[in-house]
Amino acid sequence: MISSKRIYTVLPPVASTGEEPLEITTLVQSPVISVLGIGFSTGEVHLHNIQTDQPLFTLGGSAGDIIAATSRGQKRVTSVSFCTDPAVGAEKSRVATDSGGNMLVVGHHDGDITLWNLKKRRISSIMRNAHDGPSGGGVIVGWLAGQNVLITSGGDNSIKVFSNPLYFN
User: Fold this and answer.
1) Which is it for the CA torsion 83, 86, 88, 89, positive or negative?
2) Pick from 141, 104, 108: nearest CA to 120
3) Where do the domains of the chain lie?
4) pLDDT, tens digit, for every residue of 74-100?
C-alpha cells in the first residue's frame, strides 16, 4: 500500500497593501529546487524558498511597477515560467537566496505577457495583447527547456511561439 504525506504548507501571504490574504492563481518550481514562483490574483508574483520557509522577494502587484506599466489596473496572474537558457543567465544554482535565473515570464488574464528581469527586479518588457479573446482568456506561458523560446496560449485559442522574446517590446 502506498500512502502520501504532506511535507510542507505555505500559508497564504497578505497582499502588499496589507489587506486580506492573497488568492493563489498559479504555482511553478524555479530552476532552484527549493524555490517556488507563486502567482496571485492581485498581479503579484512571490518567490518563496520552501526549504527555509523564507520569502525571497515580490514582483508586481500594487506594490510593484506592473500597475504603473498598465492603465488597466490589477493584472491577475494566470501563469508563470522561468527561463532556463544559460545564455540569458539561467545557470543551475543551489544557493537558497537565488531565484535560479535572470528572466521570469508572467501571463495575465487580459492577454498581456510581462517579462521580468529577476536580477534587477523590474520589468524587462511587456507584450500587450499577445492573445485576444474574452478578457484575454488568461495567457498560459512556458519557456522551452534550456532555450530562449517562449510558447504561449490564450483566449484566442492559438498557440504562439516567440524566438528571443527578451528583446520583444
Assistant:
1) positive
2) 104
3) 24-167
4) 789 999 999 988 876 555 544 444 555
